[in-house]
Write a structure and sequence with these properties.
The protein is α/β, with parallel strands linked by helices. 24% of the residues lie in helices and 21% in strands. The strands form 6 sheets. The protein has a 5-stranded parallel sheet, covered by helices on one side. The chain has a 5-stranded parallel sheet with strand order 10-19-11-12-15, covered by helices on one side. The chain has a 4-stranded mixed sheet with strand order 9-16-17-18, with no helix packed on it. α1 packs parallel to α9. The longest helix is centred in the middle third of the chain and has 16 residues. The protein is globular, with a radius of gyration of 23 Å. The chain starts with 8 loop residues before the first strand and ends in a 14-residue tail after the last helix. The mean pLDDT is 92.
């Protein structure tokens, strides 16, 4: 445990929002952090170049897209409510300055190995072309789950890209574009390019989400303030059966969409009422589809994609056996969690399954494992947002500093069983931990 003369050391892998929050609380609770960031800047996805483009706005308001002790400065925002991607990145840089984190961050330092020591962890990383290593008392993994873009193996060829490679709508001027998937990235990219492309086809799966605007229609307040608010007269969900809870959630989202819009949607876009509802936030997506001259056409699941190197065009086939030819295919098909710095023993302890994009690892409260002492994960789960990331960072740093006792072995074993049940449950909800996700 740390003392005034020799504080315990903690290695933090990743300098996105999770890593920065972990560094801030490590310092606050008397630990000595070193943050390893393989890129040339802090910010994680928000630094750009990963499917986050300059004109894209956050889908939650600045009230929620921040840490509790460092709110956005209104003067830095071009929009009254929703910051752009560069503004979020700027915010994270000001967080580094405000809490004096810069001297603890190593940029262009990629962790290549984390191995267990007696009472700690050996960290090996590359920096300026050479390999270095150092022993730490603790390690916090903050690599996020958006590390490795997933593209189905049958979707290959010229002009087939993943949504993480999307840079700006203008590149698709006068192009015929297929966007595969209509979750967060798929809907946002479809809408963004629909004003400049010759045609946009959005290929959707069998579990379509409700797509709601950033502002609640009747009150013009941000959706996140409604979702993160608990009404006084709310009916306790624990008193409802699973299917009753699903039904209430479907009814709620239909109201957010608007009854007229919902009734007008093509059948392919209407969410399946027999499974848990899913929701994304995107302005104008339905309106582009329902316009008198639609800007976005909807097709069922894409079953094959074949690029033609000679013509540069891409031939696609859909689940209804129809075919189409386009200039570009953008695969908004998600990400896989990759942990290249972990050995197979550690991955096996975590029950790591990169194919499972819903619950790729099993840890107590998504943070701790009884068989991996002095290790924690922050923000490494599906659907993290700033408030949950901050609470996780605060909790694990409180434990590592000795301010709080860690959960007992039995508590953590029980937590692992809970996570295992979440992984195995069918049908799956949108997020494994809805109370910690948007």
């Amino acid at each position: 445990m740390p003392n005034n003369f020799n504080p315990s050391t903690v290695a933090i892998v990743g300098a996105g929002p999770s890593g920065l929050a972990a560094a801030k609380y490590a310092r606050e609770f008397g630990l000595s952090p070193v943050v390893f960031e393989k890129g040339s800047a802090v910010g994680g996805l928000w630094k750009g170049g990963t499917g986050i483009w300059s004109t894209m706005h956050s889908n939650i308001s600045h009230y929620s897209c921040c840490f509790s002790d460092w709110p956005f400065k209104r003067a830095t925002l071009s929009s009254e409510m929703f910051p752009t991607a560069p503004e979020v990145h700027h915010y994270l840089n000001t967080y580094v300055v405000e809490f004096q984190l810069g001297e603890f961050i190593k940029l262009n330092a990629e962790v290549t190995s984390i191995s267990a020591l007696s009472g700690g962890w050996q960290i090996t990383w590359t920096e300026q072309g050479s390999s270095k290593n150092k022993a730490f008392d603790f390690v916090i993994i903050c690599c996020g789950i958006f590390a490795s873009p997933f593209v189905p193996s049958e979707f290959r060829g010229e002009n087939v890209i993943h949504s993480s490679q999307f840079e700006c709508p203008g590149r698709y001027q006068n192009k015929d574009v297929l966007v595969v998937g209509n979750a967060f990235s798929g809907a946002e990219i479809s809408r963004a390019i629909s004003d400049v492309a010759s045609s946009v086809v959005n290929s959707v799966g069998t579990r379509c989400p409700y797509v709601i605007p950033r502002l609640v229609q009747h009150s013009k307040t941000p959706q996140d303030l409604h979702f993160y608010n608990r009404p006084i007269d709310a009916e306790p969900t624990q008193q409802l059966s699973e299917k009753e809870a699903w039904k209430k959630r479907h009814e709620m989202f239909q109201k957010y969409v608007g009854e007229d819009i919902y009734r007008a949607l093509p059948d392919l876009l209407k969410p399946n009422q027999s499974v848990p509802a899913q929701v994304i936030i995107c302005d104008g997506y339905y309106e582009k589809i329902l316009a008198p001259t639609p800007k976005i056409s909807i097709k069922p699941r894409t079953v094959s994609v074949v690029g033609d190197s000679q013509s540069g065009r891409v031939k696609v086939k859909f689940a209804d056996s129809t075919e189409w030819e386009c200039d570009t295919v953008i695969c908004a098909t998600g990400f896989e969690l990759v942990l290249p710095f972990m050995d197979e023993k550690t991955k096996n302890i975590l029950k790591y399954d990169p194919r499972d994009k819903f619950q790729p690892i099993l840890t107590h409260e998504t943070m701790l494992h009884p068989d991996l002492p002095n290790m924690a994960l922050v923000g490494v789960y599906r659907g993290p947002f700033f408030a949950a990331i901050e609470l996780q960072a605060r909790w694990v740093c409180s434990i590592f500093s000795g301010i709080l006792d860690p959960p007992s072995f039995d508590e953590m074993r029980s937590g692992l069983e809970k996570e295992k049940k979440i992984r195995e449950h069918t049908p799956r909800p949108q997020f494994p931990h809805p109370g910690e996700s948007f």
